[in-house]
Amino acid sequence: MDTNSQREAMEYDVVIVGAGPAGLSTSIKLKQLNENLNVCIVEKASEVGAHILSGNVLETRALDELLPDWKNMDGCPLKTKVTKEK
Predict the structure, then answer these.
(1) How many Å separate Cα 73 from the centre of its chain?
(2) Nearest alpha carbon to residue 60 among 77, 43, 46
(3) Four-residue CA torsion sign, 71, 56, 45, 79
(4) Band of the pLDDT at 78, cuts 50, 70, 90?
(5) Can you tell me whether residue 32 is helix, strand or coil?
(6) Contact present, 58 and 49 (Cβ < 8 Å)
(7) What is the dihedral of CA 76, 43, 26, 82, to 10 degrees?
(8) Which of the 8 DSSP states describes residue 80?
(9) More confident residue, 82 or 7
């Protein structure tokens, strides 16, 4: 084993493991409180949020409080409103 090998390193103020609802909302809130924080999210899926939105029915109250203008944001994956329940 080569003990002299070099690795790339990046420094962060906060590292959040998992881009589920708790990880995403935590990272958003931290950046809202201090935009100079260097925040990293580590996610096992191919993209952030890939596991949490597929086929979900989502109560948006918390999202409305965290990001009041989320419905008008580019790339917002929530498009279809629930109009009835069975």
Answers:
(1) 14
(2) 77
(3) negative
(4) confident
(5) helix
(6) no
(7) 40
(8) P
(9) 7
| C-beta separation of 66 from 25 below 8 A | yes
Residues 6+ apart with CB under 8 A from 14: 27, 30, 37, 38, 39, 40
Residue that has been written with the tokens 């990293």 in this structure: 40
**C-alpha R_g of the chain:** 17
Q: Is 20 helix (H, G, I), strand (E, B) or coil?
A: coil
Strands (E), 1-86: 14-17, 39-42
pLDDT tens column, 5-64: 889 999 999 999 988 888 889 999 999 999 999 999 998 888 776 766 556 667 788 888
Task: Quote the pLDDT of residue 28.
Answer: 92
